[in-house]
Amino acid sequence: MGNEFVCCSFLLLLFVSLSPGNAAASHTEDDSVVVLQLPEQKDGHSSPHMGMGMSFGMVEDDLMNPAAKVFATIKDIEVGKTMPIYFPYIHDPTTFQFLPKHKTHQIPLSSEQLPELLRLFSFSPDSHQALAMEQTLKICEMEAPKGEVQGCVTSLESLVDFAQDIFGPDSQVGIVRSSLTSKSTPLLQNYTVVESKEISTGKLIACHNEPYPYAVYYCHFQLGSVNKVFMVSLRGDNGEKVDSAFLCHMDTSTWSAGHIGFRLLGLKPGESEICHFFPAYDMVVVP
């Protein structure tokens, strides 16, 4: 399927039709609120960015999860290099779109109002949808680690506002995303690097799609950090091509030694950068 790489500010509005989200929408008669359905997991594994585990480390069992096969270093993206990588197939990309701000801003993103939200979306309190919503709200409300700016965005407008608070009010904003994979692509297979190109260095915001009845992204930015983002063209053992956003955290000296990236790659804090491939429903925001 086509590449979804967007890096120019004048293309930013295309993100409305390309961006990930979490549900199919229907509207009330007066169009004042949005009623949505949270889909079930279809592949039996968690998101490739493994929820908050990518930022804060994971338990030992996650080393066996195929979805953890997204970590690498810059030397691993040399042309001709082969490695196993997990890329999920997105069954319906149209369900991964931001809703307009005038629809989502009316719905509180608040743990305190979770009972009311469950009634709004007609979810049982003991359903998997309720648990997913509760976990996402906790992520959105948690205190940012020292040296980080973080928050959740629910529309294209709120994403731009979040980015401009970091990059500057007059800055132009671009998005780097991975391409989708086809139904015939294995979730985990060996990929060979065909080409890699550095896109940006400096201020980068990583945004991860979180399970919710409409598109919610957890976005975070590390103050004073030096990061790099690449677009890497890969060809799988089955012959199909993926163009993937590849984000590198260059200073890992303050990271926990138990972070799954270190354990998977056999590295220690500060010994090397840690990078990870992005699935199509996550994104890197750049100035």
TrEMBL record:
Regions that span the bilayer: none
What are the BURP domain coordinates in residue numbering? 71-287
As given in the record, the signal peptide range reads 1-23
User: Which keywords describe this protein according to UniProt?
Assistant: Signal
Please indicate which superkingdom the organism of origin belongs to: Eukaryota
In its keyword annotation, does this UniProt entry include Signal? yes
Q: Tell me the protein's name.
A: BURP domain-containing protein
